User: Fold CYTH and CHAD domain-containing protein from Klenkia sesuvii.
Amino acid sequence: MATEHTEIERKFDVDEAFVLPDLSAVPGVASAGEAVVHDLQATYYDTADLRLARAKITLRRRTGGPDDGWHLKLPAAAGARRELQSPLGRAVKAPPRAVLLPVLGVVRRAPAGQVATLQTRRTVTTLLAEDGRVLAEVADDQVTGTALPAAAGEAAVVSTWREVEVELVDGDEELLSAVGAELEVSGARPSASAAKLTRVLAERLAGPPPAAVQDEDDDEDDVDDDGATPVVAEPLPEGKKARAKEVARRAQAAKAAEKAAKKAAKKAEKAAAEQARAAAVPMAGEVVVAALAEQLTALQRADLMVRTDVPDGVHQVRVAARRLRSILAAYRPVLDRTGTDAVRDELQWLGQELSGTRDAEVSVEHLRELVAAQPAEYVLGPVASRLQQAELQGQTQGTGQAVATLSTPRYLTLLDTLHALVAQPPLTDLATEPAEEVVAGVLRHTVKRLQKLVDAAEDAEFAEDGPGEHGAGEHGAAESPYELALHEVRKAGKRVRYTAEVAAPVLDGRGKKKNGAVMGVVDAMKQLQDVLGDRQDTVVTRELCRTVGQAAFDAGENAWTYGRLHALEEARAMQAERDFWALWPTLAPVLNGVTRKR
Assistant:
């Protein structure tokens, strides 16, 4: 079973002549321990296309030190890296499945094999507090790194260097900064590589090698140093007059050639400027594909959160999936829908599979807070404890269900499809047009769609006369046509927001205007989502009140409080609806500002 360690460290490059200074004089350090030497051997594993390294994740099998085993280092957050450690076991050629499981969403179904080895002679010095606590460890590393051949017939690449690492144990950031400053005074330089593996695989991570260039010695007899074919001047004619005439002709020709060269240079300069201006204008396809790539990265990051039990991971997966769906739906003029509609369906499936986990978690938490705020005489029976049990049970089942969903072949296929979509997007002819007009047109369309849905919701509100017809909502609770219409408005508002976020860098001066018209739409849609999101939350909480109340009643408990909670949530829903209709007129000017053609 893996154990978790949080790594907070700083790395420094040093020369061979570097001498580690006496760090016992650093403020907060009482003394330095005796130096201990370890000979470490580590083998690093990754896919052939280095998916882990590109995601800033390292996976190694290390022996020779006090922490022998498999080490999975996850991306840094707030200056710290999470490290999952597992026992060595007997696997050597490939990592055990249990070790790979946390990063399954990154490697997907590609095999992970050996990509590099490191041999490190590490000299560790501990920095101690007055009471003997270890504040930090300073590791002076002599490293030999070997990048293993990427393909048959290639040679391994060996590199050597020296670096110093300072890792906090029981110290704080202030101590880390002080030790780092002392090392820099002594000649150390902050390392440009976040990890040793990054340095070893730098050439492969940089991408394909540049195209071959012609050798400098090729055709050296036929070409001048500046690359031009030499011109051999003809001898001047005999005779004084003929010679003078030829000299004048040549001078005139040289003057004309110089004038022509200046004209050509000016023309070339103008063409280059036009080309540079054209290159500075983003194409619609570039903007949309970049947005997809950004959300795919967010999905991968959220996937890792779920698999390593980081709070809010399921919610972040759903948000990334929803944003991807919205981009694919809204920007269909840029992306051929025959290549994206199936992907949208799969993203919808993913969101639905995870919806119960997230919604139940939020709903139970809200109801527990609501119960705590009630007068004691209104809480009849073990309501709080029953909700707490529901919360704990939901968390356990929810995390397991989420990880199971993210480990299915269907989900892994979706990830492969998304990566392929970003690498080779099915672009339409409109994708090669300048982005400004294209994204403006898409944004206008999504805003007008929202406005029509609001009109439909208003019609449904006035059409309701009594109970009316009810349909099943996404959580199984019965909802009226009016409630369903408001739900569609909420979803349309999200699409407007995500569409505007893609368009804002282009339409609001490519990020120069922080509060431009399009970002105003984003802010407006956040307000809309807050209000209608509250109303939608009550759909889940009311159903939860019913089911938990029924269970309490079946167990012989007094279920009156659950009815009260249900009524309070109904009142919250009605208030949210009133808040929405009060808010909507204030959003109209913001939305109208982007519906007019530019």
The radius of gyration is 33 Å. Residues 209-231, 466-472 have pLDDT under 50 and may be disordered.
